[in-house]
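dude i think i finally got it to work??
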Amino acid sequence: MGKATDLCTVVVLENSRSLIAKRLEEDVALTIMGLISDDPGSWEEAKSVWPRYRSPAVCQVPDGLPFEESSLAGVMEVLAVSESWMVIDFQTKRILSGGSFEPVGRDAAFSMSLGDKSQGECSLFIRIPPWWELLETASLFAVTEPRQEPICKPKVDRELLYGETFLSYVADRVLEYQRSPDWPESDGDLEDFYGLTVSVHRDWLMTPREDLGGKIPRELLHGAARWSDMVTHGQELRFYEIGTLIAIPTDWAQYDTDPMGSQELCMYFNYCRAMIDSAWGWCLENEDLILTLDHPQVAKVLLDFLQQCKEDWMSESYQGGPSPRFVIECDRRRVAIGDGVAIEGMDEVPRENHILDCNCPICLMMAEGAFGPSFSRIDGHHLELDEEFAFSMAQTLEDWEFENQQYGEFDEGVDEDDLETEFNQKEESVSVWSGVRSDISLPGDQQGHLKMAFMVAEIVSVLESYPNRILDIQSLNIAFSEYRKADGRRRKKAAKKFKRVLETLACRFPELVSKSADLQSRIDESTRLLSTEDKI
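look at this
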């Protein structure tokens, strides 16, 4: 953009009013544009996410911005004499800019500061939703013209997807199978029902429904995941700069029907599979009841059971982490999930997931926060395991077929790549370490502690191959931890203790002699460099 002192006119158009600010710095205008990344439906909603996008270059709160109400005719008169201008039209979901206002694009990132970086700076990420029109270097006449294309924003009926409609469907289909020749012989292992699970799940997603106007439920899941994920990732990156995560409010007019991000999409897959499996399990345990009651009665009992299963599943930890309900809420409110990281606007704080009794030194460094907060996400690979479009994260069949074609081409070249890798490995110099083959420092590892952690991990791996070596492993990890945390005069003493532990292990386990010697030399070099820096 231009200099921070460049001024522009910003107009906000809503159904019932027009607002205009005649002399805003471009940093402020960019921040206002950034607010649209969250798809607010009004200026009031946009102002509520100001903290998610503001920087030291702009005011703390947007209420102090010099917006005044005006008629549309008055707005057009001011724009006609403005050198630089931007219009945000909430009614038609359009952003227009013209004059000397430089084009920004739909996806952009800016480093915002006051010029003096000591006063603070942070990134501004602009991610315009796909259903918003962006007209840059526009003519003034475009402001009053209609949209070029209709608004195609995905709307999610979560009551249908998660509620009684879906659960009743599962209950009916499972009971149909229970009375059919397709019911498998089983000793209670739900794996025996996997093929039927896939069938019930696929049919639910791919069958057109009258209550969806002929659409299939799958269509409700897609259309916005990439945009939502980009917004969430931008907020995660800002966290490392400003130290806070801020969720969007839940009182927005369209919050209940807002489209899914990838994390909710993945969780919905898991939810469907969990409810279908629960129904199989219930049938196996209630065969006598099923024979006693007629279908409507059995279906009602099974439905009640599934509704309780839903509440339990939503509230329980997912794979040792936060609950599905929390994961889904974070995705809908476009914030990343960090271990122990509080989120403004949400009461629950995700617990730290790392296993604190783990013997891996790298894991222990993570648990101690050596690398800062750890953020986690579901990559969705399990949605592709059935190799069916119905469950895929691809939005369209064409996208899914193209991705599969690419994977096929990749697989065809694997053997050749493996041979080339094997040849290159033979050319590398021999190292006493299997995982550390270069003396080049790792990015961001100025003190060399991360590289040492990989080396200590290899030593731990050797020790774990022997019985009853937990005390040796703990002594090694404690010595390494004390060395990492030591500074100044304490560093040499900690280094000496660390080396002594390594020497003891080398005497007792001959296969550790070369690793111990190499790591001790690296400790000496690291200690020397750090001591030199202390004197500067």
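The chain has a mean pLDDT of 88.
im so relieved honestly
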